[in-house]
# Entry
Amino acid sequence: MAGADGEVLGVEDWLTPFSIQSVSKVFSLALALAGGDSLWARVGREPSGNPFNSLVQLENEDGIPRNPFINAGALVVTDRLLTLTGDARGAVLELLRAESGNPSIDFDPDVARSEAARGDRNAAPAHFMAGYGNLENPVGQVLEHYFWQCSIAMSCRDLAAAGLFPARHGLRGDGSRLLDRGTAKRINSIMLTCGAYDAAGEFAFRVGLPGKSGVGGGILAVVPGRCTLCVWSPALDRHGNSVAGVDALDRFTTRTGLSVF
# Structure
């Protein structure tokens, strides 16, 4: 847990690095929105109700992904960030290092290569969206940056600290503003409704906090104005969410009363 005042607390394996996978989408989305809100013309803000790598809705909705946290939506975000910065994966890594206070955070090249070798279910929606004119950069380049971004390895301590800006209403650790309050509010809203794949409703019901999960077993949750929580346990349910992680967050909010409801 990281408090809005900067205090960080943890137990068990909270200093063990793991692949953050889709939790990285929170940070790439924040950076893309910091460059303006034109992104919303290219990606929606509704829960998908389908698995994170589904193609079904893309065909029905003319290549516009349902939200920025499913894989297709995250590819559009990466594409936008690549246009804005020229180095999407580097921009995400730089933000994570700065906000966590840990300059040694890095990519895991073995994970990145594994992602690329098994990346057909990401390449398919990328090509499909490119066919609709919804990517600005070459598909291969977008995929490369997306895979490397997902491969970043961090501990619960570092991820909780890096994820404080949504709890601080858009303020970074040094007091500068990454996002205005309205944009920070909207990121929290999308985390609540779309952050746990096609089990986002169940996550909101049980945990009652904005959160973003990843298939590496990590979950980042936000208590606006108070703190962030990061849990990690590799065993996943059929939706791709950490079983023990969701249970731990459920118990925490039940016992403390710290939820948005």
About this structure: The beta strands are 2-3, 18-19, 106-107, 152-154, 211-213, 218-223, 227-232.
